[in-house]
Amino acid sequence: MTSHTRGFGVLVFKTCKTLWHRDVNASKNMMSIAPSIWNQDGHPTAFQRI
């Protein structure tokens, strides 16, 4: 039995009732990265490949 339910880009964890929406998370990431790129500082450390 899984601890989560998935459907159409949405993931809901049953135990903690957390909802993850793929498009919302992607837009939050873009809002973090864009200013850094525009200021020519490169990607923030959290978004850099190792």
TrEMBL record:
Domain of life: Eukaryota
Protein name stated in the entry: Uncharacterized protein
The organism of origin for this protein: Mucor plumbeus
